[in-house]
């Protein structure tokens, strides 16, 4: 009986190891690899013979990846066939933990005695260069070569709580939170100056819109996606307009004369309600804007 117990314990342990090993399916290293997309979103994909593919739900070991070359990446695939959640990569005693949020790579922590600052470059029809600082992507550059447009670049830079994208294809500059929500987007002119911009809060609601019309620079302020205030300058005067339900309520005009600021308040119809300067104020009945 005692001998039987000594025989059973190793068998149980061996079966346990086999069960754990069978939890992951090892993919053919010559066919499959883990791929970080060459787009600003940094989505994690499984590539089969050069083409993005979707696997059945389960756990897999991918033996090729762009991060550490030939190595074992332990991934989980959800019911939609996408890489789901954080995963680890192991190679020759080195171990990396890749953090994934909403299907997008956020950072990679490499546990090794070597320096954590590194970069890798992909050269294909386009050229992608990513710089890592302490395991996090700090900056990436994507350069596209096309005969009709020449050399175009997308530059993505990461900060503690957001990242920016400068896109030469549509002449824009954008700012995103780490949850990939758009916070700011600007249109740029040929020399990189902002010609129009929009700012949003974390819920995606418009907060501020700057633009130029008839050579006048406007700033529109919003609350709950509704226009509440407009600021601009024209002919040496400062204008401030107030709105409710998208309708003009009143306008305040400030003019500088003889070192003093004159202030005019008009209603929506352009009737002067109040006029003031450095010496005092008085009610008016003018229709001058």
From TrEMBL:
Entry keyword set: Signal
Signal peptide region: 1-21
Gene3D superfamilies: 3.90.930.1
Top-level taxon of the source organism: Bacteria
Protein name: Sugar-binding protein
Organism of this sequence: Sphingobacterium ginsenosidimutans
């Amino acid at each position: 009986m005692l001998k039987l117990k000594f025989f059973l314990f190793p068998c149980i342990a061996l079966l346990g190891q086999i069960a754990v090993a069978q939890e992951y399916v090892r993919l053919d290293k010559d066919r499959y690899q883990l791929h970080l997309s060459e787009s600003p979103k940094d989505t994690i994909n499984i590539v089969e013979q050069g083409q993005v593919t979707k696997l059945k739900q389960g756990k897999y070991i991918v033996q090729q990846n762009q991060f550490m070359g030939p190595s074992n990446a332990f991934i989980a695939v959800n019911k939609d066939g996408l890489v789901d959640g954080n995963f680890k990569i192991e190679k020759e005693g080195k171990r990396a933990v890749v953090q994934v949020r909403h299907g997008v790579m956020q950072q990679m922590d490499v546990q090794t005695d070597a320096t954590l600052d590194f970069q890798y470059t992909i050269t294909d029809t386009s050229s992608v260069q990513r710089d890592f600082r302490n395991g996090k992507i700090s900056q990436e550059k994507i350069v596209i070569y096309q005969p009709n447009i020449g050399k175009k670049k997308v530059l993505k830079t990461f900060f503690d709580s957001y990242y920016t994208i400068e896109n030469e294809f549509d002449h824009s500059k954008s700012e995103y939170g780490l949850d990939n929500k758009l916070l700011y987007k600007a249109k740029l002119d040929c020399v990189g100056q902002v010609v129009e911009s929009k700012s949003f809060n974390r819920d995606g609601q418009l907060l501020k819109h700057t633009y130029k019309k008839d050579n006048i620079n406007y700033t529109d302020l919003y609350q709950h996606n509704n226009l509440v205030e407009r600021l601009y300058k024209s002919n040496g005067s400062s204008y401030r307009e107030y709105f409710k339900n998208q309708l003009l309520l009143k306008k305040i005009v400030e003019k500088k004369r003889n070192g003093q600021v004159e202030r005019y308040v008009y209603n929506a119809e352009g009737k002067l309600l109040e006029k003031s300067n450095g010496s005092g104020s008085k009610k008016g009945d003018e229709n001058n804007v």
